[in-house]
Amino acid sequence: MPIFTYPLGAELTFSPLGLCSILQPITDASHTRDRKRSPPDSACFPGTRQQVVKNVNTWARSDVTTDPEPHLRWMHGYVGSGKSSISQEVCDTSDREDRPVVSFFFFRNAGDRSKIWRLATTLASQMAAAIPQTEPFIREAIQANLALLTQNEGGVSLRTRMQRLVYAPFKAVVDRKKRVRALTKGPFLIVLDGLDECDNKEEVQELIDGMLVFFNENPLIPLRVFITSRVEEHIQSRLNVPAVMLDNLVDHCSDYDIATFLHILFEDACRRNSVVRAYVQKHGEWPTQSDRRKLVQHIGGSFIFASAVFKFIMMAMNAGDSHPPTPMDRLPLALKMNPGLDGLYTQTLARSMHLPHFSNIISTIALLERPLPISGIAELLRIETYEVVNVLVNLQAIIQVPGTDSTPVTLCHTSLRDFLTTKSRSGDFFAHPSHHVRIYLLCLDHGLKVLRKNPTLSTGSGEQIFAVTWYDLYYSLMHMHLGRGCFEPAEYDSAIHLCRERLAIQPDAPHLIADLALAVQYRSDQTRSPSELEESISLHRQAVELQPFSHPDRSFSLGNLGTALLARHRRTGTMADLEEAISLLREALELRPSPHPDRLLSLNSLGNALWHRHRRTGTMADLEETIPLYREALELQPSSHPGRSVGLENLLMSLQLMYGKSQTLSYLQEAIAHCEELLAFHYPAGHRNRVERLRSLASLLQLRFDATGQEEDLSKFSSVKEEANRLSAQSTESIP
Length: 736
Known about the structure:
By secondary structure, this protein is mainly α.
């Protein structure tokens, strides 16, 4: 459903609307959400995590005027260590004790919950419900600056939004010196879970900096903030300071907690499972104490691994198996699993890989930009709903299979997506980038059928739009872009045909014009056809003309036109195309301030255009501007981002050139660091780019040795050069 926003400069009358309607919070981001529908479905089992939860709750309820402990507490731990379960329990305890608590559970690839721009409005809405005295101050702040309500426009920083909508209203209530019933049992608590799951790294740092400043200026404010996350550099660099209490969850991961967790699960299973019950009646306790100790040792403190292993052991029998394994049969297999999750993923997925449509279903779930319900997946893939269920029912150890058709299918943990999209880890289960092409074509075909049934349909029509149709409108082009290098000529033909048919139904729809323009442009890149490139530029201009400055999609059309002109410049060398492209791409970037979801695309596009002008004219100002653009783009691409290697290559190329012209050592140092990251994480043994980058690193090390005389660079140069020569020789020998 579209996000409700207010036009800047408009008069706003609050009386008819409740504050919640004005703020438009994310309702499924708090600890009160339906966790079956909105992951993570986390909760501490009785008897586990008692001490660590007690420590946090003691700190949370303590009087800030007498307790010298910091207002801000950061608990960090590795994947599966139970951070979200602890956050949930801390929130639930506050509710039970009638202490005011608000929360935001970030979750990657869950739409707005992986972004930060609605954090302030969501927390403010919850705060007004928990502490009603804050509501007038929140309304006053909105009346004074309506831009606080915009999604990602209006030039209002996250720090300002938090200050005006959360901190200032709360402080105003406290400063009145009147009794606030909600605060009689302890301070106000804000819980931010999974901060590392937020895509907006720069704004996360801004959020933390703003908190630290606020608490420094208000040391007696009755407010606590509890943050959990993995250890990420952009978070650690801000929170590892004296003003923050640190909790390393590794210090609290005891075998006792895991043993208690498994004991409760197996006791319940023995009561519910008739096969296990019959086995226990004849053979006694199961699993034996010895096997339980082996499981605890094997699990190694990871609650997510413990939960997944238990689900694997107790998985329901498949009616199609001629000799279905019992839980007792699966226990020894579980003990042989890789203690990491890859082994679990492999063994679980293998249970369904023989079923019809398995690869299509799993690849689709892995590559979707936003999860769809079971019926939506079936509708998109043009198969029956029961066929999707048939595949997923065996995978409930790793995929959350909903019980209702309106609930999306989600992954139990985001590491499953990383596994499925990394060929070296997933093997036969790899979700190949070419599947993006299939999803794109299926979206186009589905959208055409919908338009034929309802030719006037649009996002602003007020009509009900079903999940797959929404997905087609907002995400189909992303799949075309991600699958760009995998199109067969016939697939481009199909895409262009479908786009033309859709545009014939709504000839003045800018987004349909843009769809056709991009399809024609991408095919022209493959065919090198000048006429197709000219057609795409003409269509892009038409889309820009239909979108005035205030149009929310103008930046998209500007970027597309700029990129198409840059492509023509590369073919013809016409400087006018390059100059116009840079101008258009600058305007697009200005319309996409952080944390705009498409800022990364604009940063790279403008950087590429400036790089080409520098190569053409030699102007140093262009190269100097290119490097910070590529740096910011790289910051928006975490280690798991599929495009990070491209970002590293872009920046590496620019830094090498800059060092050659300036001889400034810092550029060389940065280039070496990025080259080493490419080799360590993106170009493993056997990758086609490894030899070339090994040679690049050797050359860079030689340059640094020449500049500094560091002997270790010379030693490393020799080993890198040796590996490059060895791999090159092996590659030559393998050619028949």
